[in-house]
């Protein structure tokens, strides 16, 4: 079979191109499911080396992508996600190597036990098959997703946003070099070479060849994928993340965590969008914290109690409690107690990431038990909610669903389990 990555979609029927890519991925997925851990790790090591060697080419392509995006009026949060520098490329390569160092989940057998009939029954972890990833403005996703799919024995079809097309294609070339070095099929990781948005709809219809879709981008993209996909979807819609400063919050910890959760990086789904505090914590922490926010250029929108403490804070509307700003804007609300904080999160949160700052063990335990989010934290910034920080090497995305994976999705989330039965001529009586 020809390598579909060599085809030029402009000269071909778009549906035929996407279908052929998907069929090639399906064929490659069979080989990847049988690939040894050594071969997969060799491909990852070679990919990381290729990324480092191609740094100048990646940066050049990324500068062109950024210039075009600015000319097209792309919003600042997306520009932040699109931009690469030497440090981000180094982190990208490091993430690929960290995936190589992780245990290979494929083939692991668990829960093997004898039944009264004499058979042994257990479960074996297996790849999902072909994973389609549709994403916007994040060229690092190309490397992260490729590494995770490769190590978990899957084939991947990546459809990046048009604003990152140049960066994505150079990174994809590095991945293909890694696969070739290990003797694995190049079709195991393919980046669509078309920027035509119609390709997304065609991908979502390929239920016979694509096993799961992972959308990473704005709410509009994720809603469309959820609505149109003919296969399962791993997703989260919003990242409305909260930090709650409890009565028993340490003032210095509360200051550092609340400042970091908002200002360390604005355009990410694990950035805090709403700050909650009890009256005691608000009185003790807000003056210093608000000065720091103002120094960072953060616009504050607060409830009536917040505005009594800081009259220059803008009035928060009902919509602000639901908002994912992805920028230097923060909603602030003073709540009476832990119960009211949990009630607020239940009503307005997106089940992504929520944190409490407290020295009260009982309150911490209640928050962990009662806040139903994919990541719940005690005395830590919400910015830790990603696969790299969780030791997954990287992540394919973050899921706020409860099936089949939840939270940052790494290697194990890209596999499933099948039942295995071991017998020795056993028959059912």
Structural features:
429 residues, 16 strands, seven-stranded parallel sheet, four-stranded parallel sheet, alpha/beta, disordered N terminus, globular
Walk me through this protein's architecture:
This protein has 429 residues and is α/β, with parallel strands linked by helices. The chain is 44% helix and 18% strand. The protein has 15 helices and 16 strands. The protein has a seven-stranded parallel beta sheet with strand order 10-9-11-8-7-12-13, with helices on both faces. A four-stranded parallel beta sheet has the order 5-4-3-6, with helices on both faces. A three-stranded antiparallel beta sheet has the order 1-2-16, with no helix packed on it. Helix 12 links the parallel strand 9 and strand 10. The N terminus is likely disordered.
